[in-house]
Structures are given as C-alpha cells and as structure tokens.
C-alpha cells in the first residue's frame, strides 16, 4: 500500500492510526499542502484524487480517497482488530461521533477554509471547534467508557485524537471538555496513536519532530 499523506493533516492521521492498529505496512508519499502553492494541486495528484485533498491510499489495485471510506475498506478487508462494534447500537454511536467530527467540525477549520478567513482565521477556527466540542462532550458523556464508545478503540477514536490536536494548535480552551480530554489522553498512550502522530512522520519538519 502507498499512502499519500501530509504530516499535520488530521484526515491523513486518522488513516495512519487505522493502518497502525491493523498492522498494515505501507509506504508514504508526502504531499506538502503548503509548499509550491500546495502540492495537492499538481496535475499528477489531481489525476489520482480529483478533490485534491489528502489522504489517498493505493491498496489492492484500487485508489481510495476520503478518510472514512478508506478506514471502512480496511475494516471490511482486514477486520482484525475490529474498529466497528458488533452491537448495532454501539456501531451507530461510533458512526454518529465520527460523523460529528468529520462533517461537523473538521471541514469548517481545514486549510482551504482558513485561507478564506484571512486575519480572522484563528478566531474562526476556535469558534468552530468550540461549538462542535460542546456537542461532542455532551454526546460522549452518554457513550464513553475508557474510549469514545465503551472500552474498545473504534473509528470514533481515530477521529477524536487528530481533532483535539487541531484544537490545541488553535489554542482552544479544553477546560470545558473533561471527557474529550480524558479519552484523548488515554488514546495517546497507545502505540498506534504514537507512531502515527504528526511529530513522527517522514515529512515532519525538524523543529516539530518528537
């Protein structure tokens, strides 16, 4: 497998966690979202992913984009360890939390949107994340065990950790979100979350390396 990734992309990080959890070896092709006006806009990359976003994964003779589509494919083809609970209610909760983050928070503060916001980008990102985290904190109080849904790592957790990383980058006050903070801390102790961390990628700038 070949993963087209950017070290600080939260969408790429979700996929890196899934690959690590499932023990799938892969090669990384870095796509720098800032250099050369954004390498994702090159004709070569656009031919592979018309949305001009990372991640993209070449695997099993196909090329997939969109982080959740990639993760669901890995889950379907390499089901161990399981990232979606067998219980239908818990499975629905996992998907709900993942969607809350992937659709309701992350796109509002990603690079393409922040470029449009100019000098207000920090304030915009803080507001979008805080609003989403208020809903997420309330939701997790009903679903969480050690992790987002019960005590098993799920797709929801793969989405949570990169989003908290973004919140910290944008200096969001995490004090109102004790459940999010607790789960994030527990997940960051797991090896798959450590090796996939933005500070430990091939394209991580020297000053940001762990």
TrEMBL record:
<dbReference type="GO" id="GO:0004364">
    <property type="term" value="F:glutathione transferase activity"/>
</dbReference>
<dbReference type="Pfam" id="PF14497">
    <property type="entry name" value="GST_C_3"/>
</dbReference>
<keyword id="KW-0585">Phenylalanine catabolism</keyword>
<dbReference type="InterPro" id="IPR004046">
    <property type="entry name" value="GST_C"/>
</dbReference>
<comment type="similarity">
    <text>Belongs to the GST superfamily. Zeta family.</text>
</comment>
<keyword id="KW-0828">Tyrosine catabolism</keyword>
<feature type="domain" description="GST N-terminal">
    <location>
        <begin position="1"/>
        <end position="82"/>
    </location>
</feature>
<dbReference type="InterPro" id="IPR005955">
    <property type="entry name" value="GST_Zeta"/>
</dbReference>
<keyword id="KW-0808">Transferase</keyword>
<dbReference type="GO" id="GO:0005739">
    <property type="term" value="C:mitochondrion"/>
</dbReference>
<dbReference type="InterPro" id="IPR004045">
    <property type="entry name" value="Glutathione_S-Trfase_N"/>
</dbReference>
<dbReference type="Pfam" id="PF13409">
    <property type="entry name" value="GST_N_2"/>
</dbReference>
<dbReference type="InterPro" id="IPR040079">
    <property type="entry name" value="Glutathione_S-Trfase"/>
</dbReference>
<dbReference type="InterPro" id="IPR036249">
    <property type="entry name" value="Thioredoxin-like_sf"/>
</dbReference>
<dbReference type="InterPro" id="IPR010987">
    <property type="entry name" value="Glutathione-S-Trfase_C-like"/>
</dbReference>
<dbReference type="InterPro" id="IPR036282">
    <property type="entry name" value="Glutathione-S-Trfase_C_sf"/>
</dbReference>
<dbReference type="GO" id="GO:0006749">
    <property type="term" value="P:glutathione metabolic process"/>
</dbReference>
<feature type="domain" description="GST C-terminal">
    <location>
        <begin position="87"/>
        <end position="206"/>
    </location>
</feature>
<comment type="pathway">
    <text>Amino-acid degradation; L-phenylalanine degradation; acetoacetate and fumarate from L-phenylalanine: step 5/6.</text>
</comment>
<dbReference type="InterPro" id="IPR034330">
    <property type="entry name" value="GST_Zeta_C"/>
</dbReference>
<dbReference type="GO" id="GO:0016034">
    <property type="term" value="F:maleylacetoacetate isomerase activity"/>
</dbReference>
<protein>
    <recommendedName>
        <fullName>Maleylacetoacetate isomerase</fullName>
        <ecNumber>2.5.1.18</ecNumber>
        <ecNumber>5.2.1.2</ecNumber>
    </recommendedName>
</protein>
<keyword id="KW-0963">Cytoplasm</keyword>
<keyword id="KW-0413">Isomerase</keyword>
<dbReference type="InterPro" id="IPR034333">
    <property type="entry name" value="GST_Zeta_N"/>
</dbReference>
<dbReference type="GO" id="GO:0006559">
    <property type="term" value="P:L-phenylalanine catabolic process"/>
</dbReference>
<dbReference type="GO" id="GO:0006572">
    <property type="term" value="P:L-tyrosine catabolic process"/>
</dbReference>
